[in-house]
Design goal:
346 residues; N-acyltransferase activity (chains A, B, C); Udp-n-acetylmuramoylalanyl-d-glutamate--2,6- Diaminopimelate Ligase, Chain: A, domain 1; UDP N-Acetylglucosamine Acyltransferase, domain 1; twelve-stranded mixed sheet; alpha/beta; homotrimer; EC 2.3.1.191 (chains A, B, C); 16% helix
């Protein structure tokens, strides 16, 4: 995509200082921008970059007074940050998520339905009796099993796999390679030490505005539903086991794993590589720091947890501060022991 | 799928109390069941749910005596749990794994062979000289490289990738996005600090009744085979490196990683997010708790390990109990020091 | 593939002792070799295997003097290890990475270009305005988004997903299921506790000779580029967040996660399951042991880190050695307390 400085100024209802005919084809930070880039200056802490930037054009405030000459063209607007964010959203929409139409070959069962204004990439697959909404974007190699429902405006990136019976809300994003609805890890031990597979016939439900990261895995419920509630954001390579529930607007960072039947509250934050045991309940607004292992339910709201096994963040920081000096602690103890009890004669 | 209460009773050789013509289209727990659901009551601890459930029909024992009126229809059988499990297995088979036939376009090399009664989903790929058994289910977007062998009754879910030369036994399950046979992570350091890739020409062997989780990765051997023995169950996002061996009926939970050439015994249990160093041997019936890091071989059978680095579970629990109180321990030590040696004069 | 002993000897410029007409179809370690295998003996520590091996043929040094009769044929060369490695590379090239031509159906946008001598597997997808080099191998189900650039000699295995705008250098390897260029995990908290998605419009750049493991995920930059520099090797299931930089010839083992904007130096080694916080800088030649959690920048080169939170390896080993004996430490402390302050009278 390529626009002129003047075209962008018109969209932003800004005024141009400099050559409005120059072409711009990318957005960049002001300190990294090269020729052809559009950047912005919002926080005046970074004003010095304005006088050295190689950007073709910079969005600045209408009220900014220049202290030195600037080689870039300027677009003056009321709020540079808001204007730049609008361009970011436009750019992403245009370059990635704005695709429409059907590329052949694509597979859709005759019994499936899909709303208008959609994209179905080549080699995408939609199974029997699926009900897909309008404005849905389905990238190549996406697998959508039988009887799946997907709401309006949802985007499914390349090669995501959605097992049969899954229900996905509106305006969700499923990133590439994510697996939604795989069998829960349920095996009944037999007398001879082998395992018999417990059938997993539940499903996964994603409510509206949920985001699922690349190569994340979400198992279906044994019975009933694994549920990710409205607005929850799940990062790459996260594992959510069967019958897990994730509350509204909860954020789970990369490589975290949640064991079966655990219920996480609303507005929680789980940092990266956290592990949670099964059948726990985590109260609303719980925060768990990276690499922690949670083995107990948390009933009080707003708790901060750290460690493996996890306990209160402040206590954990204190314990870790001593941990590093354990050899010294042991030496001090030994010294006291020697003082208390003089060594035996040879 | 939809059946009447009467049809289900007939299959289960049970007797109906109530309206046998009602349709049923899902299975559910008795406390979560809604209209249209079939549920069961086995453990009498949950009998009170029978009198409030919204299920359309509940499977109960022939000998159950009702204490109150029940709105659901009943199917009376000898053993409600066994009957319900049979329905679960039937349901899963019918809805997911019972697909048969070929959806076009699907790719199979002319030199490959496949047994009868199979399913090959659209966009599935079978390479040269593959030998695939009967009753095999291959979902869309599955990649099967050249010279792969797969036994009867195995199911490969959407988008699993099986590299060339892999050997898979009978009645295995490979979940969506799993990668089997990728190159081992082998690089020889060069004098200039760069790395030269060591060719990885071995393969992966899955014996019978093995289950591989979604987006799990199993590297091929450098030479020889990475082997997953009979009945082993591997969860989502597990990493098994080159030349690893996993013993019979061993269970490995999600996000665990096993480094190169490590041999895990039979009937072991590795919980989630465990890490194992390379070139270790783990005796039969070893259990490793979640997030532990195993750095040494275990020769004695039946050991329980915890911690990173891992040692005996009981000792680990005790050490962790003290760890939390390290600040207090340090304070007590300081107090003793002060008592032993009065502060110097100012 | 099958060759005769004589054909292999000719390629290696070696001389045959024994039956040169025997067929060989696999390479194996000398102690594991069966009929049909070719093996080698380089380290004389393993010479005893030569007299018991079931290999069809063994590559040995021209100068080796036999102490007992050998049933295998021999190929005598100057340097058995180098000759065997050459065969390994030839074998891998022939069996996996030497594919050429186009299998139908494959999708390539009319505006995309690709150099000569390439392979495009069935169901592979190449988007608009892509520029793909020569000698490139693209396995089935690979997704390459719009405007991606890929250098000569790069191999992309089955089902890897490369988002739009990604730039990949020469002779890179991307393993099956890897996702390159997914959205960074960026969400701006709103006053009501919900999150607004921050558009991620940057890209990912892989320089030359980079290797990416199976099902690894590399997020695009918010603005600018996530960069993996020349010769870096990234293992399976690794997560690299938005705007991360990985230095030249750095090795990152399986299941490690690096948070946003962290810069890792050249020649570093991160072992498996390591976690790194965001916005850190790691000096060249830093080594981090398995399962460690790095929360601070490291400015000095050549440091070894361990633990979660991580500190110097030697101090960490010492602290862990005491940690195991914390219960005993506490008992010793209690004893001193009792000595210092006799128990009160009953």
């Amino acid at each position: 995509m390529e626009f002129t400085v003047g075209q962008i100024a018109e969209v932003l209802q800004g005024s141009v200082e400099g050559d409005a005919t120059q072409p711009v084809n990318r957005l960049a930070k002001i300190e990294e921008a090269r020729a052809g880039s559009l950047s912005f200056l919002s926080n005046l802490k970074y004003e010095h970059f304005l006088y050295t930037t190689q950007a073709t054009v910079v969005i600045v405030s209408r009220t900014l007074e220049l202290k030195k000459p600037v080689s870039a063209a300027l677009i003056r607007v009321d709020d540079p940050y808001t204007s730049f964010t609008a361009l970011l959203e436009f750019y992403q929409q245009a370059s990635r998520t704005g695709k429409r139409g059907v590329e052949e070959p694509a597979y859709m069962a005759a019994s499936a339905s899909i709303g208008g204004n959609h994209y179905r990439g080549a080699f995408s697959y939609i199974g029997e009796n699926c009900e897909i909404g309008a404005d849905v974007v389905i990238f190549p190699h996406v697998f959508i099993g039988d009887r799946v429902k997907i709401g309006d405006g949802t985007i499914v990136y390349a090669g995501a796999k959605i097992y049969a019976e899954t229900v996905i809300g509106q305006r969700c994003t499923v990133h590439a390679g994510a697996v939604i609805g795989s069998d829960g890890f349920g095996f009944a031990p037999q007398p001879d030490g082998s395992y018999r597979t417990i059938p997993q016939i539940g499903n996964v439900v994603l409510e509206d505005n949920v985001s699922i990261g690349a190569n994340a895995t979400i198992d279906c419920a044994t019975l009933g539903s694994t549920i990710i509630r409205e607005g929850a954001k799940i990062d790459n390579l996260v594992q959510l086991a069967h019958n897990v529930e994730v509350g509204r607007h909860t954020v789970i960072a990369s490589q975290t794993g949640v064991s079966g039947s655990t219920k996480i509250g609303d507005f929680c934050v789980l940092a990266g590589q956290v592990g949670m045991a099964g059948h726990l309940t985590l109260a609303n607004r719980t925060t768990v720091t990276a690499q922690s292992g949670v083995g107990k339910s948390i009933k009080q709201e707003g708790v901060l947890l750290q460690g493996s096994p996890a306990f209160g963040l402040r206590d954990s920081l204190r314990a870790n501060a001593i941990f590093r000096h354990l050899p010294e602690l042991e030496r001090r103890l030994r010294l006291l022991e020697q003082q208390a009890q003089p060594p035996e004669k040879p």
